[in-house]
Amino acid sequence: MKKLILLFTLFVVGTTFAQENKTIKYEDISSKNSWLKIGLNAGVPMGDASDVSSFALGLDLKGQYLVTPHFGIGLTTGYDHFFGKDGVDDFGIIPAAAFARYYFKPKGLFLGVDLGYGFLTNVDNNAGGLYVNPQIGYHNRDWNFYAYYQNTFAENDFDIQVLGIGATYNLRF
């Protein structure tokens, strides 16, 4: 847990310094630096989650602002559905998170992380917990293809881990 708190602190500090004390004005937001990302993901549950689920399928919705040509920040949500096995009911996670992404070039490799809270659905006595979703992938002007390792540190010492792939499409506004 201490490592996660340190990671979150570094994320916040890094985001603050990356903005170089720049105030984002409405006039600054354009189709060149801001867009919605809509996508799908699929994964295999690991750890505790593999005992109760065989497959995860989800939807992503992200709003991103490029602070610099190489660094983007934003908010993300969506829904990840876990298909239950051995008589266990299906359940889901609704993330409410901030994210940061580093783009090495205008087209090519990127690294990113989503960090926030994952709300569990259809689970008794467990509301959710810390949501962490690091990603590595390929991007171009319209698409992002990525691999991810998602972990929700839920209540009652139940970690929901998923290893998967995803794709998002960029809608400019």
List the helices and strands and how they pair.
Layout: H1 2-18, E1 34-46, E2 53-68, E3 71-84, E4 91-103, E5 108-121, E6 128-139, E7 143-154, E8 158-172
Antiparallel strand pairs: 1-2, 1-8, 2-3, 3-4, 4-5, 5-6, 6-7, 7-8
Question: What would you say this structure looks like, in words?
Answer:
With 173 residues, the chain is mainly beta. It contains one helix and eight strands. It has an eight-stranded antiparallel barrel with strand order 1-2-3-4-5-6-7-8. A hairpin with a 3-residue loop joins strand 7 (143-154) and strand 8. The model has no long low-confidence stretch (mean pLDDT 88).
Q: What keyword list fits this structure?
A:
173 residues, elongated, mainly beta, 8-stranded antiparallel barrel, Porin, 1 helix
